[in-house]
Amino acid sequence: MAGEVAASAGAPPVRSAAVTLERVGQEAILHDRERGRVHVVNGSAAHLWELCDGRATLDEIVAAFAASYGAPPDAVRADVEGVVATFRDLGVLT
Amino acid sequence: MLGVQVSVAADDPAAVELIEETYAAFRSAPGPADGALALRLERKANGVFRVSDSDGYERSWPSRPYAVGDLLSRFMFGVLARVTARGIYAIHAGAVEHRGRATLFSGRSGAGKTTLVLNLLQRGFRLLSDELAVVEPSTQRILPYRRSLHIRAGTPELVPPLRLVERRSAILVEGAWTLTPEMLDEVLPGCLAPPARLTNVLLLEGPPVPESRPTLTPVSPAVAALELLRATWAASVDFDAGLRRLSGLLEGVSCARLRIGELEETTDLVGTWLGASVG
After folding, report:
1. Taking CB atoms and an 8 Å limit, are A20 and B240 in contact across chains?
2. pTM value?
3. Rounded to whole angstroms, how far apart are CA atoms B248 and B106?
4. How would residue A4 be classed by pLDDT, with cut points 50, 70 and 90?
5. Do B222 and A31 touch (CB under 8 A)?
6. Any chain B CB within 8 A of the CB of A57?
7. CB atoms inside a 10 Å sphere around CB A65
């Protein structure tokens, strides 16, 4: 069981197929058709969700996200990990 | 109406008069029957009122006011279903224009849309609609929708010019009456607007509280889009398509929540927020 949890936590995050993203101004709306929920997120969180293509590892996502904002990866790592965890809790990432 | 042929048959003269006066601006000679909507209101021998339409809807009501209200709802739903299928987009909201800029007012029935809209018309704004904001897909402009306004008892006391035409109108229920676009233009000349680009959205919160100060709180277009979706018939058919259209419509639009308080103070607040010089 512990091995399964570790493997799951290390797997590349992937956008839920039941979720669509629509940008509105500086923000975006994630619509989860499966759960019938919507989430309003800021532009950075929307960009992060889009980076989660199921191929990029968390380290690669951190690097890509940091590069987008001209920041060192270590400066954004904690925030990225926190948002990815929240997105997984919400079910918009698997 | 919006390219939809609608016919209404009723054996109740009051209901016919109400429909005719509510949709007077759309009256035309009969056209092609394709996609037409036919509504019927009948009084049955047992005293109940039956509303039916050509989409297969049928419901009985114990009294006339409920049946007439249902008839008006079916009228609206039937038209919206047809215009949505043609790519025209409609939001259940009031809309006014000022200097080429359109503002939407979204709120539940009784939230004060019509009274606020009428007061803005007295200050130089022009009417696009008090009920349905019709979006032109190619330009994202709000088109005029000239259904007659339904005026509640007490509103003429707040908007005095209405007293001049109050007695010439069809009576709805509970003292409410209809105000045709022609009558409105008579008491507030030049108040009917041409199409205008959407620049502002106001989400009305709760019923008006006349003895309190109004409040206006900015919200993001994303939050406004979600609120407007609830007022958009097409979203109940295809939520994602509705969201996509509203997202495009609200790009660059200023949005806020408004709690209506004392009417003049509320109108001042809205005018200031819109950056309009209202007098």
Report:
1. yes
2. 0.79
3. 18
4. very low
5. no
6. no
7. 21
DSSP B147: P
Q: Tell me which amino acid residue B78 is.
A: G
Please write down the long-range contacts of B58-62, taking CB distance under 8 Å and 24 or more positions apart: none
B104 closest CA partner among B203, B185, B215: B203
Which is it for strands B141-143 and B196-204: parallel, antiparallel or unpaired? antiparallel
Q: Taking CA atoms, what residue in A is nearest to B252? A: A25
Q: CA-to-CA distance for B67 and B180, rounded, in angstroms?
A: 22
Residue pLDDT, tens place only, B8-20: 888 878 777 777 7
Tell me whether residues A24 and B252 touch, CB distance under 8 A.
Answer: no
Query: How high is the ipTM of this complex?
Result: 0.77
Tens of pLDDT along B54-102?
989 999 999 888 888 888 888 888 887 887 777 778 888 999 999 999 9
Alpha helices in B27-102 (DSSP H): 64-85
In this predicted structure, the answer to whether residue B279 has a pLDDT above a threshold of 60 is no
A40 and B220 in contact by Cβ < 8 A? yes
Residues of B in contact with A38 (CB under 8 A): 226
Identify from A24, A30, A34 which residue to disrupt to test chain B contact, counting B C-beta atoms within 10 A and taking the largest count. Answer: A24
